[in-house]
Write a structure and sequence with these properties.
3 helices; two-stranded parallel ribbon; 2 domains; Helix Hairpins; about 25% strand; about 40% helix
Length: about 160
């Protein structure tokens, strides 16, 4: 069995994923079961598109339930660093090539709890800005081999 990776989440992201899991295990699962039963009552299942679609949706739902269960089991609520320091759970304003952009640094699962784009700490830019402070300039090598300089304009914890 593969080792399961710790998933760093904000409390808000954890709560939203937990809410989705509850919905999928309860109300949504029941709706799919009702659609399957209704389609089954129509007769010949081999040519019943509604039955096939409901069964496919059931499979997708069960897969997502398994995915959420693993993520929540391996979740660790992160404590974002203090204002001015870039780390997991920071909202970071960056200036790249004269353009300002705002991101959250962290796992993509955090995206359920924010309107910001999320940058992984394992990505080239994420690794470069991790641990930097407001006012710092850092650089990283883009996948195309180009060296890119990034100015940290602001960093504060995701609320």
């Amino acid at each position: 069995m593969a080792e399961e990776k710790v998933v760093l989440l904000t409390q808000k992201a954890y709560d939203k994923l937990k809410e989705e899991l509850t919905w999928r295990e309860g109300q949504y699962r029941d709706e799919i079961t009702e659609r399957i039963a209704s389609a089954r009552a129509e007769g010949d299942l081999s040519e019943n598109g509604g039955y096939q679609a409901a069964r496919e949706e059931q499979g997708k739902n069960e897969g997502r339930i398994n995915e959420l269960t693993v993520k929540l089991r391996n979740a660790q609520i992160l404590r974002p660093p203090a204002a001015g320091t870039v780390g997991n759970g920071s909202v970071v304003t960056l200036e790249i090539a004269g353009r300002e952009m705002v991101y959250v640094l962290g796992a993509r699962e955090i995206a359920v709890a924010t309107d910001y784009d999320v940058v992984s700490p394992e990505s080239p830019i994420g690794a470069a800005i991790m641990g930097a402070h407001t006012g710092d300039e850092v650089s990283y090598k883009a996948p195309n081999g180009r060296e890119i300089t990034v100015a940290i304009k602001d960093a504060h914890p995701l609320a």
